[in-house]
Amino acid sequence: MSRTEESGLEARASSPPPPQHKRLKKPPRGDPQFPEQTFRGIAVSAGIAIGAVFGAREPAAEITRHSIEFGEIANEEARLAEAVARSRKQIAKLRSRLGVLPEDSQAEIAPLLDAYAQMLGQSRLVRGASRRIAEQLRSAESAITAEAEEIAAVILAAPDGINDDERVSLKRRADEVHEIARRVVRNLTRQPFRSLAGLPEGAILVAENLRPADAALLDPARLAGVAIEEGGADGHTAVMLRALGIPAVLGAAGIADAAEPGTTAVVDGTGGSVILHPSAASLASARRAVAAFARARQKLARMRHLPAVTTDGHPIELQANLELPIELPLIAQAGAHGIGLLRTEFLFMNRENVPDEDTQAETYRLVIEAMNGDPVSVRVLDWGGEKDIEALTGAGLVSESTETNPALGMRGIRLLLSKPELLETQFAAILRASVAGPTRVMLPMITNVEEVREARTIYASVANRLRRRGDRVADPLPPLGIMIETPGAALSADALALESDFFAIGTNDLTMYTVAVDRGGTEVAHLYDPLHPAVLRLVQFATEAALRLRMPVSVCGEMAANPKYTPLLLGLGIRSFSMNASAVPRVKQAVRGLSIDSCVRLARRVMDQSDGAQIRTIVDQFGRAGPSAA
Ligand code: PEP
Ligand code: MG
C-alpha cells in the first residue's frame, strides 16, 4: 500500500521535478484556461493517488561504445536499420491508438507522430547516420546522435529577425530531431530505466511504457501513483505494480503526451481513469475516495486473524505470490499462509550477470525462514516472453531475442533445459535452502511430459551431487510440481499429473495462450478474458486430473486475487489460492461468506454456457445476490 492510501493524505512532490524535454505546447500548471482532461485506461492496481506528474520520458541512454572497426560496418548498419524499424513500429502503434483520444488532442498529437515517422523513413537523419557509420567508423548510437546534433544545429541557426513564435517553433523542431534520435538510441542500447529510482516523493509517474524490470525499481514509499500508455491487465508490469501496492492505470492512451511535468493528476487505480488538471470538485471527490479506500483497507485488515473457512466448514488455503523481497512483511500482515508462487525472476533483474548458487541459496533461505513453517513454492526462472533478459545476455547465456513472437519462443522451462547449468544452479540453491522450512519447487511454461521428466532427472542428480558434497538437503526431496499455464499442459493434465507432485494453475498465461491475446498488450485487451469458456474448461480439466490422483492443485494467476471469481474456482474444486498479498483479505472475506454447495451449483451453471458474456453475467449476479443466485 502506498503512503498516500495509508494516511489518506494528498500526495505531493516535495521537490520540483527535473527539467524535461518538451515536445508540445502545454497548458501551464493550474491555468484555469485549461479544463480538466480525463483519460480512460485499464485499472491494474487499486487505490487513488493525487500528486504532481513526473513525466518519465526516458533519459538519454548511455552510449558506451563510440567507434567501430572497419570490418564491423555491415553489422553496425544492420543494428541501426533494426533499431530504426523498431522505432517506426512503436510510433505506428502510438498512431493507431490516437482514435481513443478527444479530437483536439488527436489534432495536436497526430502531426507530431507523423513528423517522427517521417524522420524514421528515408530521411536525412537515417541516411546521415548510416553514412557516418561507414565513413567515420562510428557506432550506430554515436552516428545517429551526431547526425541529430548537426541537423538540430542547422535548424536553430535561424536568420536574425524572426519573431518569437517562429523561434519557438524552430526550437520545437530541433527538439523533435533529438527526441527521435534518443528513441533510436534507446532501441539500440535497450538500457534499463534506472533513473526511476530517484523519483520525487509523492509523484505520479507518467510514461509511454514501463518494463517489469523498471517497475521492480520503483519505491512504493515515494511514488503515489502510475499512469502508463501501454500495457495490459495481467502483464508482468501490472503484476509488479499490484505487488508494490501502487495505484496504477495502464493502457491510458495519450497520457504521456498530454501530461506536463508538475501538473496535478489523479490516478484512480480502482476505476481505471486518470484526470489531469482536476477541477476543484474532482479534487475534493478524489480526496474523499482516498480516505474511503484507506478506511476499507483498515476494515479488511481485521480479516487477518480469522480463518479462511467456508460457511459449511471447508478450510481454504490462501497464500501469497511474491515477486520482490520488499513484499515479505506484507505476507504476514495480509494473513496469508505461506507463498504459493515465489517468482524468482527478481533475482535476475537489473543486473549484468547471473547470481551464483550461494547468493541464490541465501535469498531462498531468508524467504523460507521468514515464513515460519508455512510452505514456500519456489518457481524456477521463468524468463523470456515480455520479460527482458539482461542478466542472461550479459552472462553470454542467451543471445538477444530476435523472435517475432517471443512469448512463443525460448521461455521458461525451454530456456532452462537448453541451458541446464542455469537450472542446476537454481535447483541446487533451492535444495540447500529447503532445510529451512517446507518447500516446493515449481516448473514454469510446461507444455509436455518430456520437459517434466528431463527436469526431474536433473533435479535428482543435483540432489545426489549435493549429498555427495556433504550439503544437507531436505529428505524426502521437496515436491516437484508444474505450472499449468499453456493449453498444451492443461489438455495433457492427466498425463502430466502422473509425472508431477502438484499443479499450480497460472491463469495469466493460460488465458493469454488460449484466447491468443497478449496479457500485457493494450489494443485487444478487451478480448483477454479469464472467464472465456475455453479457459474455464482448461482449468476444470486440469483441476479434475489432479483431484482424481488426490494431488494438490492451486490457482496462482491473477484470477485467484479477484473475489468475484472465488466462488467459481471453489465450485470447480480449487481449495488453494495464491495471489498478491494485498488481495488476501478480500478473498478471505469472500470465502467466509460462501458454501461449497452453492459454489458447485454456480460452477455447473457456468460450465453449461458457451458464451463468455453470459458467464460474466452469471458470475456477476452471483457476486451481487450471493449464494441464492446459484
Ligand atoms: C501465470 O501465468 O498465471 C502465472 C502465475 O505466472 P506469471 O504471471 O509469472 O507468468
Ligand atoms: Mg505464467
Describe the structure.
This protein is globular. It is an alpha/beta fold. The model is unreliable at 1-31 (pLDDT under 50). Helix 11 links the parallel strand 9 (317-322) and strand 10. The strands form two sheets. It has an eight-stranded mixed β-sheet. Strands 15-14-13-12-11-10-9-16 form an eight-stranded parallel β-sheet. The protein folds into three domains: 23-58 and 196-279, Phosphohistidine domain (Glucose Oxidase, domain 1, 3-Layer(bba) Sandwich), CATH 3.50.30.10; 70-189, PtsI, HPr-binding domain (Enzyme I, Chain A, domain 2, Orthogonal Bundle), CATH 1.10.274.10; 312-594, Phosphoenolpyruvate-binding domains (TIM Barrel, Alpha-Beta Barrel). It is built from 24 helices and 16 strands. The longest helix is centred in the first third of the chain and has 26 residues, at 164-189. The structure holds phosphoenolpyruvate and magnesium ion. Magnesium ion binds next to helix 19.
Topology of helices and strands:
Elements: H1 3-7, E1 37-40, E2 42-45, E3 48-55, H2 73-96, H3 103-119, H4 124-136, H5 140-156, H6 164-189, E4 203-207, H7 212-215, E5 223-228, H8 236-244, E6 248-250, H9 255-258, E7 264-268, E8 273-276, H10 280-301, E9 317-322, H11 328-334, E10 339-343, H12 357-370, E11 376-379, H13 390-394, H14 413-418, H15 420-433, E12 439-443, H16 449-469, E13 480-484, H17 487-491, H18 493-499, E14 503-505, H19 507-515, H20 533-548, E15 553-555, H21 566-571, E16 576-580, H22 584-592, H23 596-607, H24 612-625
Parallel strand pairs: 3-4, 4-5, 5-6, 9-10, 9-16, 10-11, 11-12, 12-13, 13-14, 14-15
Antiparallel strand pairs: 1-8, 2-6, 3-7, 7-8
Helix pairs in contact: 2-3, 2-4, 2-6, 4-5, 5-6, 12-15, 15-16, 19-20, 23-24
Bound molecules: phosphoenolpyruvate and magnesium ion.
Phosphoenolpyruvate (PEP) is lined by residues 239, 341, 343, 382, 485, 506-509, 556-557.
